[in-house]
């Protein structure tokens, strides 16, 4: 009964129960006491009655949380104040190694944050992710909490275990006001994490154009070696961000992972508006990645027919192939493997010649072998009609012969 009365703020009932020797520290199925319930619901007067009646303020409940954790997480400043005055340890951690300050920062409870800081809470404490309260406030978009933490000496450029600063967290979420607060306090715009990403990368990847613009105005570097912000925006299809980065001197043909250009990643991910913009600029349609694949080969592999057409119209070679020693595949190989018949029809219409149809990859397989091995019999028929050799042998020869027998039987019935 005391649990329910405490949660619902029935001070008189709680006092009656305490006076009549109710077990004030009894726990429910979640290991929570009446004090936990009252604290979580902000029942200040009930909390006072319970503590004065002998409730243990350090009792640990579900998730290893104390009454102070519960009050802080829910922004009940008066309860926090009372518990701290009565000796609650504000640096005790719950099961995620979070302190009361972490929890208040996550929820944006500015009053509780300020009170905890004033009473000596450790602003540098880290949880199991190596996040501080500043990371939590930044990631969840609480600018006033960020301000309070920064005013009490938190290092704005501290890096957490996943290698993200508070500025990168704010940029990733598009939290404009938080980001401004951080930069005003000296956050390094071009700080690079171990994953080679800056705040500009985070904002670009997530399409936050206002954040991108602000970072560029603040001196963000568009030419970080490796994957650039332009790669990230191209990969996720944020055309407006791509245009903004290019206007600020981002290199169309910069190389990222596996030596891929922005045109490679936009084509692979099917972002035709980005592809069109890049082609209207100076993007190199013939550029190859570490395997020798062009943007056309990438688009063909993913069945992005409209992009395939656009690339060919802009000069992409339909017969280009990967580097010998790697996969050595053509766009026709990739499309046949994936069963992308519309791409194949277009490639055949636009100049895949007889010799190209017979091109083999590093294992000696033609596009026909891929189609047969995967059971794409409509593609098998189409390739044979365009001159593919029914007697060709490759790595898939065993299955090829079995499937081919089935195909020929069907063909001549």
Textual characterization of the structure:
The protein is an all-alpha fold and 413 residues long. Among the domains are: 88 residues, Alpha Horseshoe (Serine Threonine Protein Phosphatase 5, Tetratricopeptide repeat), CATH 1.25.40.20; 94 residues, Ankyrin repeat-containing domain (Serine Threonine Protein Phosphatase 5, Tetratricopeptide repeat), CATH 1.25.40.20. The protein contains 26 helices and no strands. The longest helix has 15 residues. The chain is elongated, with a radius of gyration of 31 Å. The N and C termini lie far apart (82 Å). The C terminus is likely disordered.
**Main beta sheet strand tally, sense and closure:** none
Query: How many helices?
Result: 26
> Please, what is the average pLDDT?
85
How much helix, percentage-wise, in residues?
40-55%
Structural class, by secondary structure, is mainly alpha
Count every beta strand, where a strand is a DSSP E run of 2 or more residues: 0
- Categorize the overall geometry: elongated
Rounded to an integer in angstroms, the radius of gyration calculated over CA atoms is 31 Å
What is the third-level CATH name, the topology of the domain at 320-413? Serine Threonine Protein Phosphatase 5, Tetratricopeptide repeat
CATH architecture term of the domain at 320-413: Alpha Horseshoe
Weakly predicted, low-confidence segments: 159-164, 397-402, 407-413
């Amino acid at each position: 009964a005391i649990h329910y009365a405490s949660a619902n703020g029935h001070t008189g009932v709680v006092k009656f129960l305490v006076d009549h020797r109710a077990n004030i520290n009894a726990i429910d199925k979640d290991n929570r006491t009446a004090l936990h319930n009252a604290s979580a619901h902000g029942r200040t007067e009930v909390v006072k009655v319970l503590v004065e009646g002998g409730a243990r303020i350090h009792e640990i409940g579900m998730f290893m949380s104390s009454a102070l954790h519960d009050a802080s997480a829910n922004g009940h400043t008066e309860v926090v104040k009372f518990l701290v005055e009565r000796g609650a340890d504000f640096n005790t951690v719950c099961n995620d190694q979070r302190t009361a300050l972490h929890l208040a920062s996550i929820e944006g409870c500015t009053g509780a944050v300020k009170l905890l800081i004033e009473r000596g809470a450790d602003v540098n404490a880290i949880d199991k992710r190596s996040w501080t309260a500043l990371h939590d406030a930044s990631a969840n978009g609480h600018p006033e909490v960020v301000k309070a933490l920064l005013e009490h000496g938190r290092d704005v450029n501290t890096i957490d275990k996943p290698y993200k600063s508070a500025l990168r967290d704010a940029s990733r979420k598009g939290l404009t006001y938080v980001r401004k607060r951080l930069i005003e306090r000296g956050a390094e715009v071009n700080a690079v994490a171990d994953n080679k990403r800056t705040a500009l990368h985070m904002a670009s990847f997530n399409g936050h154009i206002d954040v991108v613009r602000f970072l560029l105005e603040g001196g963000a570097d568009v030419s970080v070696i490796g994957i650039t912000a332009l790669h990230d925006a191209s990969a996720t299809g944020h055309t407006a961000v791509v245009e903004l980065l290019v206007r600020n001197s981002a290199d169309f043909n910069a190389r990222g992972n596996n030596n891929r250009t922005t045109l490679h990643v936009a084509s692979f991910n099917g972002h035709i508006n980005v592809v069109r913009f890049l082609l209207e600029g100076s993007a190199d349609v013939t550029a190859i990645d570490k395997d020798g694949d062009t943007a056309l080969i990438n688009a063909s592999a993913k069945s992005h027919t409209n992009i395939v057409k656009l690339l060919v119209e802009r000069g992409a070679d339909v017969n280009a192939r990967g580097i010998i020693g790697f996969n050595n595949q053509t766009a026709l190989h990739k499309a046949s493997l994936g069963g992308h018949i519309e791409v194949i029809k277009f490639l055949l219409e636009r100049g895949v010649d007889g010799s190209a149809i017979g091109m083999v990859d590093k294992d000696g397989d033609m596009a026909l072998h891929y189609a047969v091995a995967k059971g794409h019999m409509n593609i098998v028929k189409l390739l044979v009609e365009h001159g593919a050799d029914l007697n060709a042998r490759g790595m898939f020869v065993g299955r090829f012969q079995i499937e081919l027998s089935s195909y020929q039987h069907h063909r001549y019935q």
